[in-house]
TrEMBL record:
<dbReference type="InterPro" id="IPR001765">
    <property type="entry name" value="Carbonic_anhydrase"/>
</dbReference>
<feature type="compositionally biased region" description="Basic and acidic residues">
    <location>
        <begin position="10"/>
        <end position="19"/>
    </location>
</feature>
<feature type="region of interest" description="Disordered">
    <location>
        <begin position="553"/>
        <end position="583"/>
    </location>
</feature>
<feature type="transmembrane region" description="Helical">
    <location>
        <begin position="182"/>
        <end position="203"/>
    </location>
</feature>
<dbReference type="InterPro" id="IPR011547">
    <property type="entry name" value="SLC26A/SulP_dom"/>
</dbReference>
<feature type="transmembrane region" description="Helical">
    <location>
        <begin position="396"/>
        <end position="427"/>
    </location>
</feature>
<dbReference type="InterPro" id="IPR036874">
    <property type="entry name" value="Carbonic_anhydrase_sf"/>
</dbReference>
<feature type="transmembrane region" description="Helical">
    <location>
        <begin position="140"/>
        <end position="162"/>
    </location>
</feature>
<comment type="function">
    <text>Catalyzes the reversible hydration of carbon dioxide to form bicarbonate.</text>
</comment>
<feature type="region of interest" description="Disordered">
    <location>
        <begin position="1"/>
        <end position="31"/>
    </location>
</feature>
<feature type="transmembrane region" description="Helical">
    <location>
        <begin position="258"/>
        <end position="283"/>
    </location>
</feature>
<feature type="transmembrane region" description="Helical">
    <location>
        <begin position="106"/>
        <end position="128"/>
    </location>
</feature>
<keyword id="KW-0812">Transmembrane</keyword>
<dbReference type="Pfam" id="PF00484">
    <property type="entry name" value="Pro_CA"/>
</dbReference>
<feature type="transmembrane region" description="Helical">
    <location>
        <begin position="344"/>
        <end position="361"/>
    </location>
</feature>
<keyword id="KW-0472">Membrane</keyword>
<feature type="transmembrane region" description="Helical">
    <location>
        <begin position="39"/>
        <end position="59"/>
    </location>
</feature>
Amino acid sequence: MSACVPARAADSDRTERAHPPHSPPPTGPRRFRIAGADLSASIAVFLIALPLSLGIALATGAPLQAGLVAAAVGGLVAGRLGGSPLQVSGPAAGLTVVTADLIQRYGWRTTCAITVLAGLAQLGLGCLRVARGALAVSPAIVHGMLAGIGVTIAVAQLHIVLGGTPQSSVPDNLRALPAQLANLHPAALSVSVLTLALLLLWPRLPGRAGRVARTVPAALVAVAGATAVAAAAGLLLPKVDLPSWRNHALAGLPDGPVLGLAAAVLTTTLVCSVQSLLGAVAVDKLVSGRPGPARVGRSDLDRELLGQGAANIVSGSLGGLPVAGVAVRSSANVRAGAVSRNSTMLHGVFVVIAALLMVPLLELIPLASLAALVMAVGIQMVSLHHIRTVTRHREVLVYAVTTLGVVSLGVLEGVALGIAVAVGVALHRLTRTRITHEEKEGVHHVHVRGQLTFLAVPRLSRALHLVPHGADAVVALDGSFMDHAAYETLQDWQSTHIARGGTVEITGRRAEVRIAEPEALTGHRPADGTEKARASGAGCRCRPWTAWRNHQCERPQPVAGGDGRPSAPGEGEPEPSGTGGRELVRGISAFQRDTAPLVRGELARLAREGQRPTQLFLTCADSRLVTSMITSSGPGDLFVVRNVGNLVPPPGEESGDDSVAAAIEYAVEVLAVRSITVCGHSGCGAMQALLDSAPGGADTPLRRWLRHGLPSLDRMGDASRSWARLTGRAPTDAVEQLCLTNVVQQLEHLRAHPSVARALRNGTLELHGLYFHVGEAQAYLLTERDGEGVFDRVRAVDLAV
């Protein structure tokens, strides 16, 4: 008996620890619940997925049921097992060309087997945790691949739109196009044109009725409308033919040459994986930009690869198309407000129900309408935004070669060509280093533009040896990388030159991040000031750029003297009066101790050469707005003008105060700045004062100055104008709306100044609008879209591209 008592006591202790005596009794198993947002989002995604799945199956030459199988499996399997909760998977337009080529070469049942093998390969890659490696592929290659696939789809579907049959390749389709135009089918063409018209015009319906109508997806409206018109007119057209599920073809054993099958599996794996992983990253961006608290975690890319692999195994085994993440459906899912993977899975359930119960309705759809829908999707895959992006980043050659390779040779061959060109471009940039030497006023300047590798060492050595012994030298490094060979060359020359009586100054914005040993080369200490803090015992862990008045810093308390009072200031230290004075001296002392040694060389250069800023930054005088921190700029970068409300008085309305106009003229005419930024901010007291101002008040200097903001107030109250807005959320109140409107209005005032107008006409100046939310530490950049001023959130990933 005694042996049992401790055991029972232990059990009792464990029970009490698990359920404290004052806690509510444990509840039963949680019931499965579906959020209303997930239900509505799943319906929206289903309405988009149904016509697109049939259209993609038509474009590949597969049985039309294969598109429904892939959509259902993508929703249920990939939705349940994948690592991106809100990404919707299914038959993707990016896989159309690959699948069509496989069907033509090996037949449908072998294509299903290839899909299964590709899924197994994805499972292996997911287990190896290499998903992040797929993101190392240049975006220019991915966008070029999608553009090439889009061109191939559009050219092939054009034949069905005209009432004919597509050929096997883009060159063959282009050669057959004149004959097809001569023998077009009027009924098919009319149904296709109606589909495209509805697809284009439905999202642009105006007014409140248009907003309500746009809740129905344009793809569904286009196909349903064209089907209804064709049925009412009695047009004789080829229509969707869904055979009995009893005759549905399942996967068979692979039949074909081993090397060809291996290449097919590799191609399918590559396209499915890259498209799905990039789609998962894009979904994360959409979710983070959605207003309200983010209740969805970030994507687990390795798990996403495992989920896609499982979905392809199931889809291929059941006779479905290859599965991948689909951008159109995923973005619709996020914008519809989905909060969990339940929306993706429910859409798969709806596809299953439609495939079993809606066959008579689906068989009314004309094939020409589906072809027009898929052709529009293919055209949209050639994105002008992507073309502008790769052009801005000098990747247009990689993009063009990949696109042409995919169109003329195939997906795998085109991607291989794009990778080869991307490697060649990277090597060219790595070896393209310009090194110049010149003498100015007795100082020898060696300027290095580009990356310093061992390939540039001979040219660097020749330039350095042009500097005479004992001369003053400045080496400017305008690059972000230096390998060990270049470092040794520069360090040896510096030591030798200084030993022979010369001086060496290493400058350049990126000089401090070249290699792991910048301190020995440049004389700079770590920028965080920790070494100095340890030596002095100050205990301050703040970086030098955080030395503003309200920053949080753990400072030691003053040591008390023998009488119990704090010790007096040190010898030679000024003893200011008042708390403000003590804060001022403390800040200056921190600058001299921590920051001045780091910036002294750069400020000495600016003192010699004078100021040459590239930007005029006009912002509010608010103490919370730190311009250098927001723009990551340093001394000499910005010409800053601050006033109450970041106002720009129009020419002729200054009334004796020409300070802003003078600064604008000086910046444009004398300093030749290349851009002007007007920056507003959240919680602006000037905008609040404008909203609160009543007519007939006292004529104070502040009131006289704020009259330059009255046009912004009038602009916000003008019902004929579109309001400036933020992406991702609505303005929180009238003050924020006025802050946004004021930036747009002050830019108009700025354009009226003669010096600005001339520079804009000559193309030597550009204007920018910026809004900074202080509480969120988030910057928004003004862009013009659809005639509206839209402030887009600036993200860290955008800056890294």
